[in-house]
Amino acid sequence: MLITFIALIAPLLVLVRPLQRNAFFVLYFALMCLSAYITETYYFRVQAFSHKAFLIFAVYHLVCINIAVFIAYGADKRAAREGAWRVPEAYLHALEFLGGWIGAFVAQKFFRHKTKKKSYRVMFWLMLVLQSAAVYIILRYLGLIH
């Protein structure tokens, strides 16, 4: 399972430029590897690249990416209050597009952060629409929906 996770996530570091320097994507990557390792070590083993491995990957991905996004929003809010280095919006949007929009939405409400800047809000909802379209296209291509 760990091999499957690394094979699925590592290419994103090469292909998606905002993720290359994004410490929160690295956090997500570490959470994914840790969860795969713990699952394999203490619970059950899954054959690499099996259907079960991909389903477990999807669940872990959604949990880990949303945790990373929530932490990123908290770090950005804290930096905004202290006048320190901020998390670039491109980093936040890249994480949102990868499935972290739920964590972003919850963090916006929890931290009361990124709720007033109209350009950011428009891009946030655009990321949600693009992600929904991508999921629809993939499911349609796989023949899981008509």
Furnish the topology, listing elements before pairings:
Blueprint (H helix, E strand, L loop, with lengths): L1 H14 L1 H4 L2 H21 L7 H32 L6 H23 L6 H24 L5
Features:
146 residues, mainly alpha, 6 helices, 81% helix
Characterization of the model:
It is a single chain. The chain has helices at 2-15, 17-20, 23-43, 51-82, 89-111, 118-141. It is mainly α. The protein has one domain (2-141). It contains six helices and no strands. The longest helix is centred in the middle third of the chain and has 32 residues, at 51-82. The chain starts with a helix and ends in a 5-residue tail after the last helix. The radius of gyration is 16 Å and the shape is globular. Helix 3 (23-43) packs antiparallel against helix 4 (51-82), helix 4 (51-82) packs across helix 5 and helix 5 (89-111) packs across helix 6.
Q: How many helical elements? A: 6
Question: What is the residue-averaged pLDDT?
Answer: 88
Order of helices and strands: HHHHHH
Number of strands: 0
Q: Span from first to last CA?
A: 31 Å
Query: Helix share of residues?
Result: over 70%
From the spread of the alpha carbons, the general shape counts as globular
Low-pLDDT regions: none
Question: What's this model, at a glance?
Answer:
This protein has 146 residues and is mainly alpha-helical.
